[in-house]
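RECORD TYPE: inverse folding
INPUT: structure tokens
STRUCTURE:
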């Protein structure tokens, strides 16, 4: 996570039946059959420890793609087809950009068009490799090959847009339920979800970056909560100050090294508040009613700032604690160590929000 380090002295530390026929109708992500519950389990079921040498999971954890369930439909009679090298390249590029297993995109591509073998517009009007409806494309289509155009029939754009849509739909949030919920948003059919997961497993499965103990998606928080008393916030910051200079290590949660969310989790634990493990899950936990959002310019010491970073533009990948609002400084595990950093660096990012944890959280 590259950022601008503000050097401070110690004195400053004071206070789809797609099935080769292309009939997917990608619709709204609201509602649906799959909703994750909000938990703060330390070692949730299904957690995978991600190798720090391959940082694909924020907080050093992720979860395996879920196994297919029942019912299934197309996958019962259509075996997974070989993937043309060019198409697999599109899947791989989209997966790298949005930090998803490429096999999940391959599962959709197989279900929808047999990786482009079917090129006709569906009877519902869906088009392209990943079968987008034009209205959905207008909202979620992105340029996948850098040619400056966003074309529904361009396979590179189609694959990249599918990854964009899945992450917007919460595929990384809440473990297996989050994956299923996102696929259900892509096509509102249980058999479709299971077909895609079946094909994804045939192509090799994979690990989703994120915390399997998720808190759903969205939420406006609870502005009726009382703020944490200043003296209590002071205890949190005093603990944080004592760790300035300790190294940032991907996936570390103390006591001598930290990543961003491991540090905030430990800091809030000092005042009796249990946060989830990853930055994304911490954001969703606050948004689900354990705090409330505050506008830029009204932040206070102890507030949390969430931003997108290395996980792509649709995912929270970094969390910071507000330290000095007047100078816009954080105290966080960032850069290569715990220290004070300028959060002005992040203000123009696609995801930038400030949240105040409530006293009753």
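DESIGNED SEQUENCE:
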């Amino acid at each position: 996570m590259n950022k601008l380090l503000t050097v401070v002295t110690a004195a400053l530390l004071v206070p789809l039946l797609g099935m080769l026929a292309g009939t997917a109708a990608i619709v709204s992500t609201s509602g649906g059959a799959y909703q994750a519950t909000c938990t703060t389990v330390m070692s949730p079921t299904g957690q995978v420890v991600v190798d720090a040498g391959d940082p694909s999971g924020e907080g050093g954890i992720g979860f395996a793609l879920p196994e297919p369930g029942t019912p299934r439909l197309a996958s019962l009679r259509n075996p997974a087809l070989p993937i043309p090298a060019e198409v697999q390249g599109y899947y791989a590029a989209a997966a790298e950009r949005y930090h998803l297993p490429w096999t999940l995109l391959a599962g959709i591509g197989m279900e929808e068009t047999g990786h482009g073998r079917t090129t006709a517009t569906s009877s519902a009007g869906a088009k392209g490799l990943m079968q987008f409806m034009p209205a959905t494309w207008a909202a979620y289509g992105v340029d996948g090959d850098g040619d400056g155009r966003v074309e529904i029939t361009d396979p590179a754009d189609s694959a990249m847009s599918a990854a964009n849509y899945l992450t917007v739909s919460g595929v990384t949030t809440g473990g297996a339920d989050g994956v299923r919920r996102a696929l259900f948003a892509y096509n509102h059919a249980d058999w479709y979800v299971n077909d895609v997961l079946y094909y994804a497993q045939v192509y090799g499965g994979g690990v989703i970056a994120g915390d399997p103990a998720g808190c759903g998606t969205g939420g406006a928080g609870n502005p009726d909560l009382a703020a944490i008393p200043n003296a209590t916030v002071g205890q949190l910051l005093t603990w944080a100050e004592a760790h300035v200079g300790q190294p940032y290590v991907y996936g570390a949660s103390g006591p001598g090294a930290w990543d961003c969310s491991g540090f905030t989790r430990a800091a809030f634990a000092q005042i009796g508040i249990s946060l989830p493990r990853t930055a994304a899950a911490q954001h969703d936990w606050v948004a689900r009613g354990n705090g409330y959002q505050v506008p830029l310019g009204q932040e206070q010491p102890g507030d949390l700032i969430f931003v997108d970073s290395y996980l792509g533009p649709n995912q929270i990948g970094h969390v910071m604690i507000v330290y000095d609002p007047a100078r816009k400084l954080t105290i966080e595990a960032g850069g290569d160590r715990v220290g004070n950093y300028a959060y002005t660096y992040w203000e123009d990012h696609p995801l930038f929000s400030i949240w105040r944890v409530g006293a009753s959280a």
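NOTES: The beta strands are 47-49, 61-64, 207-209, 291-294, 304-308, 316-324, 329-334, 337-339, 352-357.
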